[in-house]
Amino acid sequence: MATFISKNADVHPDAQIGEDAYIGPFCVVGPKATIGDRTRLDNSVTIAGKVTIGSDNKFSPYCVIGGEPQDISYSGAETEVVIGDNNVFRESVTVNRASEKEDGITSVGNDGYYMACVHIAHDCKVGDRVVMANASVLGGHVHVHDRATISGMVAIHHFASVGTYSFVGGVSRALHDVPPYMLVEGVPTKPRCVNIVALKRNDFPSDVIKALTEAHKLLYRQKVGVDNAREILSGKHLLVPAVMTLFSFLDHQQAGRNGRGRDRRKAA
Question: Catalytic amino acids?
Answer without folding.
Answer: 122-123, 140
